[in-house]
Specification:
Length: 216
């Protein structure tokens, strides 16, 4: 059973606002008290049966550039406007919806959140074998809106992901001296955490998944 439900059909699916509010409120203390910084990991956040068919709907990498710098390598990023599948595109839009923002507000205790219409740093991500993301704290001022970025929401789309493939999300202590916890990027698992200058995270070791697989 999934944590949150989508109502409707096909590309018109949407979150139920009252359920989102109630769910966020019920998880607030767990979120706020988490170490090394406020965060939460939720399995089966959205039904795996719903998500599994969407995995193959990722946009083509053909002609697309990837990140290739010390901080991150072999990672592609796609906005909703690059997604052809209407159900997957709608899911990205619903994660920026009023109902979902209310979930995030209740969960985090941060009021007045504004969804990002530019998907700056957001959207779909895909990291290829050998790719990595060094431990870092995210930029906290939006380049276009000039507003403070407050939260990260991650939803993993990796079916049958094996631990030996790597790609575990690492959460580090506020002094960036040691890894506090590791999160396997398995299908349907969601992670939310505060975007602050000391919320250090990443997957620093190069992916060792087989050719033909990627971390999504």
């Amino acid at each position: 059973m999934s944590v949150v439900n989508l109502i409707g059909e096909g590309s018109s699916l949407q979150f139920d606002e009252q359920q989102c509010r109630d769910l966020g409120a019920s998880l607030h203390q767990r979120y706020a008290s988490a170490e090394p910084f406020p965060h939460i990991v939720m399995d089966d956040f959205i039904s795996s049966d719903f998500l599994r068919p969407l995995i193959d709907s990722y946009p083509s990498r053909s002609g697309k550039s990837h990140f290739d710098r010390d901080q991150e390598r072999l990672k592609y990023q796609y906005g909703p406007w690059e997604v052809g599948d209407p159900v997957l595109r709608n899911l990205l839009l619903q994660l920026n919806s009023r109902a979902f923002v209310k979930f995030l507000e209740q969960l985090s205790g941060i009021k007045g959140l504004i969804p990002d219409p530019h998907y700056s740093g957001g959207g779909l991500h895909e990291t290829m074998p050998g790719g990595h993301l060094s431990v870092h704290a995210d930029f906290n001022i939006h380049g276009t809106l000039k507003l403070e970025r407050r939260l990260n929401f991650l939803l993993y789309l990796n079916d049958d992901w094996q631990p030996e493939y790597g790609g575990q999300l690492e959460l580090w202590d506020r002094e960036m001296t040691a890894c506090h916890s590791r999160v396997d990027p398995i299908l349907g698992r969601a992670v939310v955490f505060n975007t602050s200058l000391d919320s250090f995270h990443g997957h620093p070791d190069p992916l060792t998944c087989p050719e033909g697989r990627s971390r999504r």
